Amino acid sequence: MKFTAIQISAMLNGVIEGNPEATVSKLSKIEEGEPGSLTFLANPLYTQYIYTTDASIAIVGKSFVAERPVKVTLVKVDNPEIAFAKLLEIYNQIKNNKTGISSLAFISDSAAIGENVYVGEFAVIGEGVVIGNNVKIHPHVSIAENTVIGDNTILFAGVKIYSDNQIGKNCVIHAGTVIGSDGFRFAQGPEGNTKIAQIGNVLIEDDVETGANCTIDRATLGSTILRKGVKLDNLVHIAHNVEVGENTVMAAGTGVAGSTKIGKNCLISGHVSFTGHITIADGTQLGGATGVSKSLIKPGQAYLGSPALEASKFRKSYVYFRNFPEIIARLERLEKLEKERK
Over pLDDT 90: what percentage of the chain? Predict the structure, then answer.
């Protein structure tokens, strides 16, 4: 894909300084720019590179004034960072706009396939599956029977979706994620552990994105639910019957145990762990590696530590944690003096 400075300027409502016919076919960081690449300058700390970069086109702010000659063609915009993000999204959409069904894919005769769908090599679509319009199913994806996939959803390579699940519109499921695997439930008895059948499903609403290698377990009964706009980073585990509220974000390595209900608009950092059967209020913020062992019912609060403490209390307590050796030494000295007095 090649773009000229004129085309880029038109997309971003920008002003060109330099060669309007300059052409780019790839993206680069400004300090690593090479001929044929597009870059941008937003952070003043990188201004020095605008004079040395070999990139062909650079997006800069309209307020930028070169202090010495530049060889790169400039496209001046109101906000270069937002403009570059817009171009990245356009580029991503073009790159992922694949269509057609590979002859090496298997699609059940009873599956319903929408318009403008892409199905890659060795993908498997089972009986009774419903695929919406403009869905992209990359190679080695497996979609088991009676699953529904909404319009404009993208399933990257190696995604595995078990039977009877529902995924909404405009979702992105990254490579290796498993949706609908069994919840981890066993009845313990004198003869060992007896598996409890998991006959529920997973319901993923619109505009949800999961990172690579996430696992979202099916419910024992009912549904495991990711509400509209939820975003999961890589390697997140959502257990059976969990519900995650609208627009909540979880960073990598987080694990949520069964039947926990997480509110909307929560910000959950990496490696946070939740015990099961608890409730997390809307707008909760959890720092990295926080351990949540009980319900957090006050909306909009921030927590740190394990077990979780309100962030302000944790920071005060941490002053004492750091000084424990000195505090113990002082106590021992005081005890020794007290004994000597006696």
Answer: 85
Nearest residue to 101 via CA among 117, 115, 79, 85? 117
Among 237, 240, 271, 277, the one annotated catalytic: 240
Q: What's the average model confidence in pLDDT over 189-198?
A: 93
Interval 81-112: pLDDT, tens: 999 999 888 888 888 888 899 999 999 999 99
Q: What is the mean pLDDT of the chain?
A: 95
- Across 209-236, average pLDDT: 98
Q: What's the pTM value of the predicted model, to 2 decimals?
A: 0.85
pLDDT at residue 64 in the model = 95
The pLDDT of residue 7 is 95
3-state SS, one letter per residue, for the chain: CCEEHHHHHHHHCCEEECCCCCEECEECCHHHCCCCEEEECCCHHHHHHHHCCCCCEEEEECCCCCCCCCCCEEEEECCHHHHHHHHHHHHHHHHCCCCEECCCCEECCCCEECCCCEECCCCEECCCCEECCCCEECCCCEECCCCEECCCCEECCCCEECCCCEECCCCEECCCCEEEECCCCEEEECCEEEECCCCCEEEECCCCEECCCCEEECCCCCEEEECCCCEECCCCEECCCCEECCCCEECCCCEECCCCEECCCCEECCCCEECCCCEECCCCEECCCCEECCCECCCCCEEECCCCEEHHHHHHHHHHHHCHHHHHHHHHHHHHHHHHHC
Q: Is 240 among the catalytic positions?
A: yes
Take residue 72 and report the two structure tokens written for it: 């790169």
How large is the angle between the packed helices 80-95 and 5-12, nearest 10 degrees? 110
